[in-house]
Amino acid sequence: MTKKYKRIFGIVLDSVGTGEAFDAEKYGDVGSDTLGHVGEAYKGDLKIPNLQKLGIANLRDKPILGVDKVDKPIGYFGKMKEISAGKDSMDGHWEMMGLPVEKPLDTFPNGFPDSIIKQIEDFSGRKVIGNRPESGTKIIAELGEDQMKTGDLIVYTSGDSVLQIAAHEDVIPLDELYKICKFARSIVNGPEYTVGRIIARPYVGPDKDHFTRTANRHDFTLEPTGTTDLDYLQKAGVHTVGIGKINDIFSGHGIDEGYHNESNMDGMDHVDHVMAEDFEGFCLTNLVDFDAMYGHRRNPIGFGQALMDFDQRLEKVLNNLKDDDLLLITADHGNDPGFKGTDHTREYVPLLAYSPSMTDTGSLGVRETFADFGATVLENFGVTGNPVGTSFLDELKQGATQ
């Protein structure tokens, strides 16, 4: 099959949801709207002209204050619904790559059972403190000074299937923290307990008023339970690149070339680098600052600034795209900074597609699963994958041919 596009660049704006999903009630997320509430917080001063001209406001049920719909977007726009049983990054990315999570993973609203905690303590030789659902910044501010004195491990969770271990970098070296997290990963792979992600959360700072979580975070994700689109692409000889926490989310499977991000802007530096290479294939990027720094902390102003900063960098990407390049922008879930709690929110996610070679623009509608994203990538490269998802490649008129 002739490739329609030689290179596809997928950018996942981590947690940038676009309104409550069809099943939001099931998750307690009725009324959530990440983009809408960020726009409201900015009172009309949210300026994201590049996302706007791609059509980010065009398929929403409600307007984004300050970001109007455009009569003629430069590309194609739509939104996608999640069919996975959760609303975590792992669920969203796996589904995007053709592997929906059908069985809910374990969550721990009352903290982790003694059987898990004791194994972590016995392995590490350190006491566990915390052990409850909590905001990471809050629990580190509360327990961090004690942790520095005692060398204990701060263990906490959220509404998602995650076990997070925080420690000061000067007290517990990164290698030791990672080793402990790897052990924790090994004891929650089922059958009794199955946890989606173990997250190392190192921090620095002299006291509770100055603690800062560092970019040395590392996610130890459940091994994919089946073959993903990345695996299929790699096996077919299509070069695959993962930027940001993509490598962590897929446990390195299906990825030829990986880059760790220090921040969103560092991630965009990596995107620029890969675009400048003599590269053919699929590059998937995750930009996590929206989620980790602003969504969970319920900071709509910071979230909006991160969107505007990304939008400025997006202009360079749009200008550097070649006629046989395709850009796909989406998200993996919501994390509404204007909503209750501190957890992810079950929302639709935007879907934006653009290539300089497009001869028309229009709506991609509401896609029935995130897997439509991966199905489109597979069809472009002539690769067969799992029977999930519907490609929208032929809806992108006309596109370059090889």
Note down, in words, how this protein is organized:
By secondary structure, the protein is of the alpha/beta class. 31% of the residues lie in helices and 19% in strands. It has helices at residues 34-41, 49-54, 89-96, 114-124, 136-150, 174-186, 229-235, 246-249, 264-276, 289-295, 300-320, 371-380, and strands at residues 7-13, 76-80, 128-133, 153-157, 162-168, 197-204, 212-213, 218-221, 239-243, 257-259, 281-287, 325-330, 349-354, 362-367. Strands 10-9-11-1-12-13-2-14 form an 8-stranded mixed β-sheet, with helices on both faces. Strands 3, 4, 5, 6, 7 and 8 form a 6-stranded mixed β-sheet that branches. The radius of gyration is 21 Å and the shape is globular.
Number of helices: 12
Helix and strand content put the structural class at alpha/beta
By CATH, the topology of the largest domain is Alkaline Phosphatase, subunit A
How many independent structural domains? 2
Quaternary structure of the protein: single chain
Radius of gyration: 21 Å
CATH architecture of the largest domain: 3-Layer(aba) Sandwich
Mean pLDDT level? 96
Helix content: 25-40%
Q: Mind describing the biggest β-sheet?
A: 8 strands, mixed
Q: Could you spell the SSE succession in H and E letters?
A: EHHEHHEHEEHEEEHEHEHEHHEEEH
Could you list the spans in which at least 5 consecutive residues all have pLDDT below 50? none
Binding site for Mn(2+) 1: 14, 332-333
Family: Belongs to the phosphopentomutase family.
Subcellular location: Cytoplasm
Catalytic activity: 2-deoxy-alpha-D-ribose 1-phosphate = 2-deoxy-D-ribose 5-phosphate; alpha-D-ribose 1-phosphate = D-ribose 5-phosphate
